[in-house]
Write a structure and sequence with these properties.
Chain B: It is found in: Cell membrane. The complex is a heterodimer of chains A (about 230) and B (about 240). Chain A is mainly α. Chain A has 9 helices and no strands. In chain B, helix 4 packs across helix 5, helix 6 runs antiparallel to helix 7 and helix 7 packs antiparallel against helix 9.
Amino acid sequence: MGKVFDPALIIEFIPTLTKYLGITLEILIYSTILGILIGIVAAIPKLFHIPILKQMITLYISFIRGTPILIQLFLVYYGLPAVLMLWNIDITRMDALYFVIITYSLSNGAIFAEIFRSAISAINYGQTEAAYSIGMTRFQNFYRIIFPQAIRIAFPNISNSIIGSLKDTSLAFTIGVMDMMGRGETLIASTAHALEVYISLAIVYYIVVVILEKVFKISERYLNRYQPNGTATI
Amino acid sequence: MTIDFLFIWIAFKELLKAAPLTLILTFIPIIFGFLIGVSVAMIRAYNLKLLSPIANAYVSFFRGTPAIMHIMLIYFGIPLLLDILIKYLHLPIQSNSIPIVLFVITALSLTAGSYLSEIIRSGISSVSQGQIEAAYAIGMNTFQVLERIILPQALAQSIPNFTNLIIGFLHTTSIAFLVSQKEITGAANIIASKNLKFLEAFIAAGFLYWIITAIIEWVSYAVEKKAKSYTNSAI
């Protein structure tokens, strides 16, 4: 630290840091989209009880839920180049940002898979039977009956995990990504005002989380518009 | 580059020595956080004047910022405040003689408190109003209602959430290595840099976390079965 605490610096640092908010949000958006895709693919074997694949997915989900995101980040960062080296693909010079996006996508994928699976299995089987009895096909049953109900159940969990994921992006700087936190670290190195930098960072993260929470709350109300009382049942 | 499987085992044995610190950093903050969480949940449930807005702001802020921020803010902020206090009172101690682990525990306790207060609050709201009315009807006072009726049911209801939180915190302790603590991740980093075997060291660390997580899940399952034995439900 070394220098005197200067509250004026907190305000001064915020514009510098928000310039790098884009990278943080980029990690969040890409890893959420890829995570949803992985989650859908991973939920299918568990829902349809496909042998072997189901066990593999269970192992994958258990591993992701059983290890810290920091360890996963290091494993991908050091492990992926080693694995790809077996096929003579050299990615050691790849931008660290891609490693971060891969890690967070894999991590989100496991969490989303569990969310999707539990949402779909929460829907009463009578719904499917009713859909078949009025002559719907399997596909129609899924996208007209099951999916709209499942998304409503899954939404609060999805929004929680996206907010959790945003907070996790603050660890990306450990492998040298220049996101908001990474910029904060360089600011500390150049100004030696660590506390002020962390206060500014906390303010920016907090504002982003509050905005996300508001957006999710409005979306949730929209998704629940056909529910009695207009409130979520979960 | 090939993976040295033997080294994973060697690293794993080394990391086992770091596991106690990880467990200390997980459970001590949760115990303190539990006390904070119950108090905050009570303040919010009874909507106490003055304290209630403070409690709301605390929960909102700590849930809205990454845990690494809390560690860093406490790590850099508390010594600053202490220095002022020491200078003011002319005490013969120095803030830099305080072990860093205390800052980490303080920060994580505050983080745990905010998450636990929400878990306890949702547990309390799951206890039906009729139970509380019945307790008052047989002449219990507010404290008795709380201690005998609300809290036991609320806590039993919250066990799955507690488990998730404990596991979440086990994983959160990995960021303590950023303030040079020798817990599992910190130790793995040291072993990795000493032997230049990063992948193997982190695979070993991953396995160790995975095993601890599995044990916590297994214990919590047993506890939940016992805590809910009175309900006769299928769960």
